[in-house]
Design brief:
4 strands; alpha+beta; 143 residues; 15% strand
Length: 143
């Protein structure tokens, strides 16, 4: 059975309740994954910007809000004991599952925000039209 590590649990706890419900539902339904980042302080945001992992400086990222309106997560592979950062298809498959859970929770009134994935910013179902790809990134947007 999939379960969060202590570190993933702590990271998810820095996020908005809607993100917590979405990702807790994903793990409860057996899709193993890691929470890579929730809230980012000023130093961490500026490091992410410098490394090209974000396009936004502090305090403009949804990761910089308290609670965080964004989370980075990726599929966890037991044999690797990690996420495979080079497996874009695995990230896409994971994102599809997460987004389907979020849609279900929104339709049933359990969450109040839509979920946007960093591989498909305009949410049109296509990834080839994006300028900046952030496969582990998920963020809440108003309905």
């Amino acid at each position: 059975m999939a379960a969060y590590s202590r570190v993933s649990s702590q990271r998810l706890a820095t996020c908005h309740a809607d993100l917590q419900l979405i990702f807790n539902t994903v793990i409860e339904r057996g899709y193993d994954h890691s929470i890579l980042c929730g809230h980012r302080d000023k130093q961490m945001q500026n490091i992410a910007l410098k490394k090209g992992l974000s396009q936004l400086a502090w305090p403009d990222s949804k990761h910089n809000k308290k609670p965080s309106m964004a989370v980075d997560a990726g599929p966890y592979f037991l044999d690797l004991r990690n996420t495979d950062w080079n497996d874009e298809k695995a990230f896409s498959k994971f994102a599809g599952y997460v987004c389907a859970i979020a849609d279900e929770l929104l339709k049933t009134g359990k969450i109040k925000h839509k979920l946007r994935w960093g591989g498909d910013w305009d949410s049109d179902g296509r990834t080839s039209d994006e300028r900046f790809i952030d496969l582990p990134h998920f963020e809440l947007v108003p309905v």
